[in-house]
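User: Can you fold this complex?
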Amino acid sequence: MSKRNIIIGGAWPYANSSLHLGHIAGLISGDVLARFFRLKGDNVLYVSGSDCHGTPITERARKEGKNPRDISSFYDEEFNKMFDGYSFSYDLFSKTDNEYHKAKVQELVRKLYDNGYVYEKIEMEPYCEKCNRFLSDREIVLECPECGKETKGDQCDNCLHVPNTEELMQGNCIECGTKISQRENKVLYLALSKFQKQIEAHTEKVNHEWRINAKNETAKYLKQGLVDRAITRNLDWGVDVPIEGYEDKKLYVWIDAVLGYLTDTMFLCENSNKSWEDFWKEGNNNKIYMCHGKDNIVFHSIILNALLLGQKENYHLVDTIVSAEYLNYNDQKFSKSKGIGMTALEALDIYPSDSLRFYLISNGPEKKDTNFSPDEFVAVHNNEILNKFGNLVNRTLKFKGLEELPEGKLDDKILEELKVTYQKVGNLIEKLEFREAMREVMKMVESANKYYDTREPWKQKKEDIAGFNDTIYTCAVIIANLSNLFEVAMPKACAKLREYLKLEKPSWEVITAVKSNIKLSNVEPLFNRI
Ligand SMILES: [Zn+2]
Ligand SMILES: [Zn+2]
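Assistant: Here's the predicted assembly.
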């Protein structure tokens, strides 16, 4: 098959707090796919970035007496460091707070407007005369009409009642306490309802590959009927609205962030000799994957596709939604305020990143919530990764008294097994079943260890040197292949193996020979016991 042009979009984390292990468990599917398709020889662009805009950041900035950029830049830096630590192979991890992204988003939104998919509506909205600005629901305090407790306007903390517009108008400004008044406000709306039929048809065509939660969630919205959505708000932090008369407003964060996949691609291609259209326009043997947690599904399955359709420029729509369930910590939800769980960076301080990756992939929340417990993690690291994989490498490449890799003959049965393993694992990854894929690779490791034990090379070395050479050589070929098969999960260990065995690039092809006479003196254990 000829090379495909593949976009892997990793969800844009919100630059307002540290990410925890559950976020990594959701996002790592993108890295698995990006690495896998690169191994297969496809043209892959894996893109993401920090989502810097939105009200939680502006509110926090106001409270802390900071500029919103201080906050988003802080977390953007942290995300960069963290994703590097976990070996995420993004081609670009940018941020929405950069001029290139903003300019491109404005062009795209302007096009939607020119094509008649964005229209103006006048609404009465809560306003504080003293602070001189429109207030969002969260910036209004009121006495809850249901339970009588004082609450913020988005939802009652006590009884979960969501105040309606009339009830909100009885509230006060959270900042200065002034009674709310109303003012006419101009709002731009995206005519999402106009895309109902096209998105329905597209979804039906592609959703056989999606995870079940994505199918269900998207079907629910389509069944209810798509509702037009406001795209502008009264903020001073975000992307300027590219339409006259809206100079005092910004675009809603959801429209700005999902377009980041496209603006990242444009930026990357402008700075290389690639064409972004090859990835985003129809007819280029292309495929688009979006990888995120289940709370993000409709932004990718519906909204992004609507924004692309509204360009009327033959865009290729999102093909595959890779939406994770949640990862819990010791069977509880991650919660910073309750001190449950650890951040992704904290985990890196105590555990090796390859092992964390392997655990989060092989125990990933693919179809249901899964759990991270430090005890289970340590057991997987010691009993699976180190005792099986690490041990195979050790007892082959660091066989006592062996200074060079001997020449030998590759076992025929093992070669067959390797071929089957590539086939099976590749199919599973394409079907988004990464847990099962990792189990298949681990089976190959177990089979290799069994082969080793049966051959008894420690005896062969004294009694049958030709047999000994075949055993070690066969195991070395297996290890070479494991450096391909495990590349999606444990890239650091695989890079080391390639260095030891003088292999060049990883690929998704069976390696049938390794160079003999390779010096083994520099081989070190891949993993240490925790
Ligand atoms: Zn006020
Ligand atoms: Zn209440």
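The chain has 19 helices and 16 strands. The mean pLDDT is 95.
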